[in-house]
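Hi there,

I know you've been waiting on this one. I reran it after we fixed the sequence typo, so this is the corrected version. Both the input and the resulting structure follow.
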Amino acid sequence: MRNVFLDERPLALLLFAVAFFSCLATSFAQEPQFRTDEGADKKLPWFKPVAGQFPPKGSPHSIQGELIRMDHQERQFVIRVDRNDSQDRGVWDLPLSLDMLPYGSIYYNGAFAALCDIPLGTHLHTWCYVKGESDERPPLAVFHDRISPEAEFRRCILVEDDFTFRVRQQQIWRIDNVDLEKKKLSATLLQNGKPVSDLKLFDLLSRTRVYKEHGFVTLESLEKDQLVQFNLTWVGLFGPGRIQEIYLDEISRKLAFDQQMQRHQLHIRERGLPAWVDAVDDKKQIVTMTFFDSVDPVLFDELTIINPEPIGWPATLFGKGGAKDDLAPKGTIAVARESLMTYDPTNDRKGGNILKISKTPVVPGCSGVQIQLECGMMLEGFRPGKIVCFYPTSWPFVTVPMEESFHGRE
């Protein structure tokens, strides 16, 4: 059959059409432009998180400061923002109130953590987004109504202590000198064995905790040329900061990491794997959910563990019909708030068998793990975009303390 278009239209027109629609498709595929910390164009708007969508890489704004207040049940905290060259003296040391996004991650000593794991006074690195349009809460104001220049940032996706931040950057401090009489320690930051900073002079305290191998030691154990990691407080107030805790060797650092990871794993096993609902099939009573990347990935391996007789699990949690196959993986979900606080997790869990475990693209906030759960009973909160917590039946059934549930606060 004769191709009328090719025979009767100039080839140039065809090429133009192909090029035009190719460019159009490319423009729709591109991420919207937004301001970044590294970007040169400061006139661009900061990225605003969209409900039900994970944010693009590189979109949050980095803010450093000291942890001065927290509400770990609501995953809210306040930092005293570090001084920097962009600030006038009148806005030094002002507080900033932050809320963790539901998919936001917290780290301490290199491992996943909850806010309650981090001691008050710890210097933190945070990555934040501007507050939502419906957020009408006034910013924190102190000292004759002075407000931090970072006050528009309210939502946080990542929190790290100095220990975690340096490890992730593959950096470590080399002690250059120790003056115990003046309680001073000078150190140079190294990356791949090469200096990446000038020599800095830190304060030591009589209460500075010094870790070596499997125990505590005294400040007298600090020596020149040791490669160490530490956490700071009072950064910028009177110099580079005061050392709160210092780890002298790889053994002590590994022990701190392992202990914090075990604490995190227990915390999640008792409170559930956080996720949001992607889709719901009401007729088949199937809930599809994607887990957040704020938990140790090892825990996802436990989704496939089969436990025919769950420890302490009431049969009523599965609803009418329950799990159809006790020799297949199963679990329950509870509706949660943006803070990951559940309502009445002892009674408000429903579930059944895991029908499918899938992989999804790994992006900031997303673990890349998605499951489909067949529920014996559907609850109103099992809706697309809603936050839930999932409990595999291979985990013991535990009732969390009253203050950690929202039941009775309405």
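Quick highlight: The two ends are 72 Å apart (CA to CA).

Best,
R. S.
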